[in-house]
Design goal:
The protein is α/β, with parallel strands linked by helices. The chain has 6 helices and 6 strands; from the N terminus they run αβαβααβαββαβ. The protein is 29% helix and 22% strand.
């Protein structure tokens, strides 16, 4: 998705934050670094969760700790930002309906954190700015 946006001339910031267990699990890291070198608006943020040289944090932590703003100068503003999530259903954290009421699951997922900041899920009849694909 990011390559296609860049190829078509998207000029706004693009951040690819990728969470893996180990540094060795990062596929295409060389390609990601090449994209960063070629496009000033592209940033790659690898987030390993099981390495001794890196504090353990997840995608949700990037949102709550405002890492994108503090480290990359990018504000997650629902008026100007589209978020694409792909991965573990617990990381995504889609709401489920219970007795006609949508509730978020435990642990807190990225969708819940983003909706609290004014983002909305992209749905068939109600376009939003959170797009997702559960990996399994």
């Amino acid at each position: 998705m990011a390559v296609e946006l860049l190829r078509k001339g998207h000029f706004g910031p693009i951040v690819s934050a990728v969470s893996v267990r180990r540094w060795a699990d990062l596929a295409y890291i060389d390609k990601q670094r090449q994209l960063e070198a070629r496009y000033h608006n592209y940033r790659y943020l690898p987030v390993p969760t099981r390495e001794p040289d890196v504090p353990k944090r997840y995608i949700q932590d990037l949102i709550t700790e405002q890492v994108l703003a503090s480290q990359l100068g990018i504000d997650l503003d629902p008026a100007t930002t589209q978020v694409f999530l792909c991965g573990n259903p617990k990381m995504i954290g889609l709401p489920e309906e219970y007795d006609g009421v949508e509730r978020f699951p435990d642990p807190v997922g990225a969708v819940e954190l983003l909706t609290k900041r004014g983002f909305t899920l992209d749905r068939r009849r109600a376009p939003g700015n959170i797009h997702y694909e559960e990996y399994w």
